[in-house]
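Subject: sequence -> structure tokens, single chain

Hey, anyone have a minute? Need the predicted structure for the following. Not urgent.
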Amino acid sequence: MKKILIVEDDISIGEVERDYLEISGFDVTVVNDGLIGYQEALKTDYDLIILDVMLPNMDGFNISRELRKQKDMPIIMVTARGEEIDKVRGLGLGIDDYITKPFSPNELVARVKAHLARYELLKGTSMSTLQEIIEVRNIVINTEMRQVFVNDHEIDLTAKEYDLLVLLISTPNKVFTKDEIFEKVWGFNSERDIPTITVHIRKLREKIEFDPSNPEYIQTVWGVGYKFKK
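Reply:
Had a minute. Here:
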């Protein structure tokens, strides 16, 4: 069971984070004071730490800076909307990711799983957890929960839109013909209506692309099909 430390001075937020992570099978400790959280992180081997920025006695920036001198684990920073995200990412404190309040607890769980999977892959200890999380640039998919996040925001997809996205993103840069897409997403026994693919691609682009008219993710390979650009 993976051990997670949450350092959050807002007791209600910390409890919600703890509850959702525990439901997902994590062993969670919540601390409401920055200095105590830092001391707790030093004395116990946690697999991941979730840090609020503004904490009593020791803020999240200083905790991260000091921990990185002695510990190696993923750190997710929690920030309030309007705080300087570039400051969080650019201070060189070893923060792996950030999440902005208010956020979906399910999104936090997905981020935690993604970073643990990536960390374990780097250590060469586990591939099974990684298969639950697909991450390409600003898109993160939790395949276990069928959740999709784009630029840290969860988006709603229909069942076919989700299946289509997972097919394309699972093999970045591979060109899928329209026949391949239809067979893998709609099935061999479905009535073959190739224009259906075009419609679903358009709707999917509208949900995940910044500019659907000039897609940066799902690209058309004229005369052949589509690919997901990594």
